[in-house]
Amino acid sequence: MSGFRYSLNSSTIKPQPILKKIAIAAEAGYEAIELWHMDIDAHLEAGGSLADIRKAVDDAGLAVPTTIHIHGWFQPAGEEHQQAMDEARRKLEQAAAVGAPYAVAGPPHGVCDRELGAKHYHELLELGREFGVIPAMEYLGFVQEFKTIEDAIDIINRCDHPDACIVIDPFHCYVGGGPIESIGKLKAEQIAVSHFNDAPADPPPSTQHDPDRVMPGDGAIDLKLYCDKLREIGYDGFLSLELFREDLWQQDPLEVAKIGLEKMRAAAEA
Fold first, then answer.
1. Where are the domains of the chain?
2. Right CATH number for 5-268 from 3.20.20.150, 3.40.50.10490, 3.90.1140.10, 3.30.70.1140?
3. Are 167 and 65 in contact (CB under 8 A)?
4. pLDDT at 39 over 90
């Protein structure tokens, strides 16, 4: 056995409404589902409630490792920063209501001030404590600066906060050029969740974006090494299948979810 737990990132079956996504994750055999705030907002706008979502999750016996995502918090100052923090507050409140211990905090896409970003991350973590939800710093392989595990570690070190942690992802390691071995620089408790996926050998990694992701085991990433490094630091949390593929969104979502779980297990338990 792998020692990991398996989650479905709801982006993998994106077109479905949130309550159906929850039902599919449970039926397919996952232990958890990551929920996107855009789906939560769509449910609320259609007349639903956060209580509906929490009940669906609880009735299905699922955990919610994270909600996704908080953005705009890193770089701006002044009124723009305050607006970003107000939006972060709204999303953290949602995360708490649906039972998520973490919320994914996305990085800036361009050149940025790391000292300012670290200060703002500390502020965001303090805000999270009001709701019992920890914002987890995410790196993205296709952005300008925060594209590796080392970049994320730099911010959690600079921010000097005991709750600081990150989201890791083999796709972003591959695309961003950061070595998988950098997982060894983390403690298990510094990882909120591991997204899980693969990437094709072609086109070149540095040109790939979210839609290029493939099912675990169908690409060029050394997922055995990735999982071995997680085990070495004692990580036994969630691997969460995160894909953004139009072709999969057109297929039977339950079948996609089931195949994804099979492929995750095969890769993680190899």
1. 5-268
2. 3.20.20.150
3. no
4. yes
